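The freezer alarm interrupted the setup, so I double-checked each line after restarting. Inputs confirmed:
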Amino acid sequence: MKSENLESIASKLVAAGKGILAADESSGTIEKRLKTINVPSTEENRREYREILFTTAGVREFISGVILFDETIRQKTRDGRTFVKALEQQGIIPGIKVDNGAKTMANFPGEKVTEGLDGLRERLAEYRQLGARFAKWRAVIAIGDGIPTDTCIASNAELLARYAALSQEADLVPIVEPEVLMDGAHRIERHFKVTQQTLETVFHALFEHRVALEGMLLKPNMVLSGKDCPQQASVQEVAEATLRCMKHVVPAAVPGLVFLSGGQTDLQATEHLNAMNYLDHVPWELSFSFGRALQAPVLKAWKGDSANVADAQMAFQHRAWCNSKARFGKYTAEMETAKAA
Ligand code: 13P
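Predicted 3D structure, all chains:
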């Protein structure tokens, strides 16, 4: 049965001590990331960088799945294996980003709506054939003067639900990602309220569209103080606020929450994940699906030089190991200078 399949993939993705690597940066985003280390975004440089991530020996213990981008799912390792094959050989589940990006919303200044439903059924079928077992769609909600509006939240929720329904139809586990951005000077209480309203609306839409909650994963933001807020909440406050917010609105049937890092430093993201798992007493697995928070040290170590590949892979393994410890609430600051076990 399809739904049994979806449930088993969803629970493998949030298996104990493991989380997801988001390596699905669109062409524009990866160009920005590579620019930080002065590497031009050519197809070969993007391929070489992704190969570093996908062939790191030993991360299979800490990484359950990898989210790929359309270009990446079609690329191969230097020795001629598709990236999908290379991941599968390590027991890592390949996934795919299927939205076409958050676009300016007409008549709603400062707000965005994610596009990509047109032709999605056919694209999902192709990705499933290429070996993807799960999918991701990201909606973006910004906080500011008079925003978010109910219309922006409702439009994005409806799109997320329609994407999730189509993904399940195509035998792909949908990762539902409504990201409330941390940009702005708002206090943590405001981020809490907007996150709660967003998730309420999203779960209502998922219910209306008959999405099987057991066969999906939620990728939420953590509840944080705005980046420019002078009163920054402590690690403990962030962990408590995030879990309180999730408990209000996320049904227990959802197998796991795979948090995004959203612009936090890699250490902050790990500390917050650890503090939440330490508190626990929630019905879902509390895991990660980090992009920047897993990749920042890898880019820094690699610098576009093939002589640094071993160091870059060590940096990736170390970050993945720290986050794996955080999944048990057993991460400590001393681990930052220790070797990945
Ligand atoms: P960050 O962890 O860098 O926020 O990326 C996660 C992601 O997949 C965003 O869609």
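Quick read of the result. The first helix runs from residue 2 to 13.
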